[in-house]
Amino acid sequence: MEASRGLEIEKKYDVDAGAVVPPLEQVVGVARTGNPHTDLLEAVYFDTPGQVLASRRITLRRRTGGKDAGWHLKMPAGAAAGEGPRQRTELHAPLGRPDAVPDSLLIHLHAYLRGAVPAPVVRLDTRRTTYPLYGEHGTHLADLADDHVSAERLGEGGTDARQEWREWELELVHGDPGLFGPVEELLAAAGARPAGHASKLVRALGAGTKAGKRAAAGEADAGPEGTPALLAGKRAPAAAVVTVYLAGQIDQILAGDAAVRAEEPEAIHNMRSATRRIRSVLAAYAKLYRASPVRKLRSELKWLGGLLGQPRDAEVLQAQLRDQLGGLPAGDGVAGATATVEQRTGGNYDAAYRLLLEALGSGRYFRLLDKLEDFRDNPPVRADAVAPGRRAASKAVDKAARRLQRSRKAARRARRGRDQELALHRVRKDAKRLRHVAESAVPVHGKRAGKVAKAARRQQKVLGQFQDAVVARDLLAAIADEHSEPATADIYTELLNQQEERMAAAKAGYRKAWKKSRDLLRRNVI
């Protein structure tokens, strides 16, 4: 069963045991408060012994009592600015077994657990009194929860003495985030203070313990997907420019892992693109780093990219040929050709996807994720690599542009046929590299770098259409040789002709895209 999903936007406040909930109807925009109701909640939180999930601001629990009893998984959905409200994606699953995390939630955690098995770490007993806030037309704006909490640590090291505290939690339902300000003023007058911990779990783990410190550090320093907050202004050093770009792509891989496992649309493409972006940028800025870590990381990314590429290519080819076959007049030949093409492309996708899933559960993949995050957090920068970011980015983009110029000239000189097809495929790869390197330069070069990335993308896109047609042609030719039935022969001939037409149109489109950008992509690009 697929987990239900929602967005949680809330703020927490510490409050003394004797504090009194103020009259919330005094808040501007709140017309009335509903009757308060009290629930007794018991929640068991799951994590690894090292608090891997908590350190990434991820919460996994099984809770009984209240209207939303069941398994809950909360993951960061955006970084709060300063003391602003926290936003988290919340996924729910039925109660099920108390000792088995539902697969519908576990699928979102593999990229973070990396083979580890989550176990109970904290049990919370909460007496919660909820005060609903309503607007003028009966809109349920928010809920204020008055929580009396008792916590007990579980698992490794035995149990600690129970902790007890009280906190208020304001969570939006259908209200606007602007409601937080006036409500907070009223709560502060009643003795509320911004919470010292961002979650009950972190408080229960205890700031003095190693596990608690790791979790608290993750809450304080993590970005939207658990990465360290990074800045790269126009005066940033070169390594910072690279690190900021890599951090975004690593987040894409981690967030996309679950989508790939669930076969969500475009998920494989997005993860594959992230691996390619990292490889491109590592190659472009390789001189900033020690050679061995870069070489090993690029090699492992190439391995992962290859595994992602096979099902993605089969997926694209299947959709392309399905569309072309659907445009032909119905008949026995079309039906036969469609069945054969679907069987071949579908079989290729299934086989490649099985290999990909196997790889995503392997130690090699999990080690790659470890290495990516270690490279981001502890870049192996050479001692003499102190170039300013703007200068290093300019050199990297210029070098990538010259590389594209060389491959373009080689394609012009190549003989028509397979040689030219391979040469144009090289042009496409080099346009893609230029695009990625220019993207990395945007924080320090602004719009100019963005224009270069856009120009490279136009060339990459149209040459991608050319390559798709080449791959489709080769597959159709192989199928036609294997299946010589008279009813389908004309269909394959028609489809092959369509591929040749698409290749010719793509080459014309590439020439147009190049002419449009040639002045931009000359020497001293940015």
Question: Mind explaining what this structure looks like?
Answer:
This protein is α+β, with helices and mostly antiparallel strands and 526 residues long. The chain folds into 2 domains: 4-221, Hypothetical Protein Pfu-838710-001; 238-517, CHAD domain (Alpha solenoid), CATH 1.40.20. 53% of the residues lie in helices and 17% in strands. The chain is built from 14 helices and 10 strands. It has helices spanning 103-106, 110-113, 180-189, 200-205, 210-221, 238-261, 267-284, 291-326, 332-360, 363-377, 389-413, 418-445, 447-482, 486-517, and strands at residues 4-14, 32-33, 37-47, 59-64, 70-78, 86-93, 119-134, 140-153, 163-172, 193-194. The chain has an 8-stranded antiparallel barrel. A hairpin with a 5-residue loop joins strand 4 (59-64) and strand 5. Helix 6 packs across helix 12 (418-445) and helix 13 packs antiparallel against helix 14 (486-517). The protein is globular.
Number of helices: 14
Rg from Cα: 28 Å
* Strand content bin: 15-25%
Lateral strand order in the biggest sheet: 1-6-5-4-3-7-8-9
CATH superfamily of the largest domain: CHAD domain
Largest sheet: 8 strands, antiparallel, barrel
**Domain module tally:** 2
What structural class do helix, strand and pairing data support? Answer: alpha+beta
